[in-house]
Amino acid sequence: MRVLVVEDEAKMAGLIKRALQEEGHAVDVAGDGPEGLWLATENRYAAIVLDIMLPGFDGVELCRRLRAADDWTPVLMLTARDAVEDRVRGLDVGADDYLVKPFSLLELSARLRALARRDDRARPAVLTVGDLRLDPATKRAWRGEAELKLSPKEFSLLELFLRHPGTVLTRSQILEAVWDFAYAGTSNVVDQYVTYLRRKIDAPFGRHDIETVRGMGYRLRDPAAG
Ligand code: CA
């Protein structure tokens, strides 16, 4: 895989680069914030190793700008032992993981492999599929410009569908995700709530986005998948 290392200390950058190359990865190195952002923007990396203390602008700012540009390449931050605040800032702007200096190069490689197994599909705060949008934080949802008035269960059900567009969800998967373990009812409740949800998000708009997959369950049509 191709990895970008943004680190201004040449010795540290060299160590990381060699260690990753020995594992067969292609490694680019940037020595400051602006160069790192430029490389990250111009190329497609499986992961970015990002030091926080950098000339130009720091790693937190670099990560913030990447995410603002809708770039979700996995980011592993490198921080000083006592820099708790930096780590919090880093995670808050969308870094995926961090390592505290000094760290073992073996651990760095392992963390990178784990990060690269995730993909760089957007993990934004607001979920969007086609013209359906849902904000889990404010508990609001929309079809285009129209705000949807949903009960808490309908909201949870829509959230589940939006997190898995184009994927068939079985009744038991839905039941497990939306109703808690204490729920003693049957999976008929799923059919019932899918009906309620269709009445609110599909029927009024002349849409049929929640599809019934016979014998299996339900699927939210993903317009991005064609
Ligand atoms: Ca540094």
In short:
This protein has 226 residues and is an alpha/beta fold.
Instruction: Indicate the radius of gyration in whole angstroms.
Output: 22 Å
Mean pLDDT: 88
Question: What is the number of beta strands?
Answer: 12
Oligomeric assembly: single chain
Inertia-based shape? elongated
- Cα distance, first to last residue? 29 Å
Structural class: alpha/beta
Name the helix and strand elements from N-terminus to C-terminus, one letter apiece.
EHEHEHEHEHEEEEHEHHEE
Classify the beta-strand content into a percent band: 15-25%
Look at the structure and give the CATH class of the largest domain. Alpha Beta
The low-confidence parts are none
The strand order across the widest sheet is 2-1-3-4-5
- Total count of domains: 2
- Cofactors, ions and other ligands in the entry: calcium ion
Defining key terms:
elongated, single chain, alpha/beta, Arc Repressor Mutant, subunit A, four-stranded antiparallel beta sheet, 22% strand, binds calcium ion, 2 domains, five-stranded parallel beta sheet, Rossmann fold, 226 residues
Describe the structure.
The chain contains 8 helices and 12 strands. A hairpin with a 3-residue loop joins strand 11 and strand 12. The chain folds into 2 domains: 2-116, Rossmann fold (3-Layer(aba) Sandwich); 127-225, Winged helix-like DNA-binding domain superfamily/Winged helix DNA-binding domain (Arc Repressor Mutant, subunit A), CATH 1.10.10. The strands form 3 sheets. It has a 5-stranded parallel β-sheet with strand order 2-1-3-4-5, with helices on both faces. A 4-stranded antiparallel β-sheet has the order 6-7-8-9, with helices on one face. The protein has 226 residues and is α/β, with parallel strands linked by helices. The protein has helices at residues 10-22, 33-42, 59-68, 84-92, 105-117, 152-163, 171-178, 188-201; strands at 2-6, 26-30, 47-51, 75-79, 97-100, 127-129, 132-135, 140-143, 146-148, 168-170, 210-213, 217-220. The model has no long low-confidence stretch (mean pLDDT 88). The structure holds calcium ion (CA). Calcium ion binds at residues 7-9, 51, 53-54.
